[in-house]
Known about the structure:
Structural class: alpha+beta
Number of helices: 6
Helix content: 40-55%
Mean pLDDT: 78
Number of strands: 8
Low-confidence stretches: 23-27
Strand order of the largest sheet: 1-2-3-4
Distance between the termini: 57 Å
Radius of gyration: 23 Å
Amino acid sequence: xxxxSNLITGINYIILLILVCxxxxxxxxxxxxxxxxxxxHNMEHDGAAGGWVCxxxxxxxxxxxxxxxxxxxxxxxxxxxxxxINESKESFQQxxxxxxxxxxxxxxxxxxxxxxxxxxxxxxxxxxDLTLFIVFFPLPLFFPLLxxxxxxxxxxxxxWGIGFRKxxxxxxxxxxxxxxxxxxxxxxx
Length: 189
C-alpha cells in the first residue's frame, strides 16, 4: 500500500506524463494539425476559428474550408473560392462561380460515387491527440480490456455468456481493422 508521500509523488508523475504527452496538442490549440495529403503535399490547419485549411502546392499556398480527395485530385471550396487541384501535376484551377466549378468537376469526371468530405477537423482514428483523448475519455480503454477478458475466458470452462464472448472476440478486431483501413484510405470512391 502506498503511503501519503508516495501517493502524491505517483500522482505528480502521472500529471507530468499527461502534460508531456499532450505538449504537441497545446502548440497551436487543440484543433491545430499538419498532415500530408494522400498525394504528398503538406496540409495544415493552425487551430484558429473559421476552419481554414491550407495546402502548399509548388510555389502556391491555397486555403479552403472543405475538401475531398479523388483520382489524384483535391477538390476544395471556401466561401467565395472553388478549386480543382491536380496534385500530381502541381497545378490548380480556381473558380469564383460555384456553378462553373460544379460543371468543371462534372466535365473532368471528378464526382465520386461516395464522397468523403473533410474540413478543418481532418484527422484520423489514430490522431496525434490519442493519448490526451484516452486520458480524458477512458471509454476506449474499456473495449480492449473487455476483449482481452473475453478471449482469456474462452480458455476456461465457463458456460455463462459463451455466445457473447465468442462473437465479441472476433467482431472487435474486425471492427478495429476496418476502422484502421478506413483511416488510412481517405480518398473518395
